[in-house]
Amino acid sequence: MSRRARIALVILGFAAIGLAAFKLFERPIALYLVQRAIDANVGTDPSKDLPDGLHVYVCGSGSPMADAERAGACLAVAAGDTRLIFDTGSGSMRVLGRMGFPVGKTEQLFLTHLHSDHFDGLGELMVQSWVQGARHKPLPVSGPPGTIALAEGFTKAYALDATYRTAHHGPEIADPAGAGLAAEEIVIPPGADSVVVLNKGDLTVTAIRVSHDPVKDAYGYRIDYKGRSVAISGDTAYDERFARAAKGVDVIFHEALDRELVRRMQAAAKRNGSAPIAKVMSDIPGYHASPVEAAKVAQMAGARMLVYYHTIPPMPYSMVEGLFLEGTDEAFGGEIRMGHDGDRISLPAGGTAMDYENVLF
Ligand SMILES: [Zn+2]
Ligand SMILES: [Zn+2]
After folding, report:
1. At the top level of CATH, which class does the domain 50-358 belong to?
2. Stated pTM of the model
3. Is 50 exposed, middle or buried (0-12, 13-18, 19+ CB in 10 A)?
4. How far is the CA of 288 from the centre of ligand 2 (A)?
């Protein structure tokens, strides 16, 4: 046998021993890993270890278009011991779960407007917050006119499911009195651009009128807590009212649609014989802001950071984000971030830090 053949034989022998050892220990290794993940994630609340301040979870950075990387519109907030959610797009509750956000402790849901891509995940939120939080009162949901009818519809659609949960887990965990939603409609008085909708200790939430015609009642929100602040655009075309209401915030979360990419989608739909998709693609740019327009709004507001969320269209390759962001750094002098599901932005109270990390597991 040649020297090379002997070496190859020895290597093969080691590989076989390694494989056999792995097979032998595969089960204990798998059990160790899964137990570690279970201990770290099941029933825990990592948000309670965050420093006092304002923390925003990007639970849905995408649009209604199919996207494996991005859930539908959703941002969640931890401010002191209060937990709030703003919009519940499709898939967003699962992202929140993977971010360690305590859905059972959600005190209130705010809807920006009643386009379905902003409440597709409402059923999941309703059931999860009820059972995980052992709620004795329905989850409060606030939004534009129409929110009461929406909440009644969801509560009714899930009524039978609620009886199963109570029968299975008992009324201490699944109290029938805590099932469903308790809705309140936010009305911004004529002549005003904003109205305070929550005042709780150091925490203030303000609803802001934005432009999303033909949706007449579309709101953004501003959240202030102990000197730190963020503003959420919801769905809006370029709107200086939002910039004024967001004056001086640390971070603006703004939606944006890339008109050139959507134009290419429209042309493709037409070429491929889908008139309905071509029509939708030609309609939507009018009621969304372009990335550069969102950057101008952030500049006008004097924000320190701009985070894009509810971005259209999907960007399956990270280099496409470069196309989306073209021209934005000339329009905005602050820090620009492309929001991704799982991002968490932390603004500790009593300072100026803006910590940005992805906490998805
Ligand atoms: Zn919309
Ligand atoms: Zn939308």
Report:
1. alpha beta
2. 0.93
3. middle
4. 9
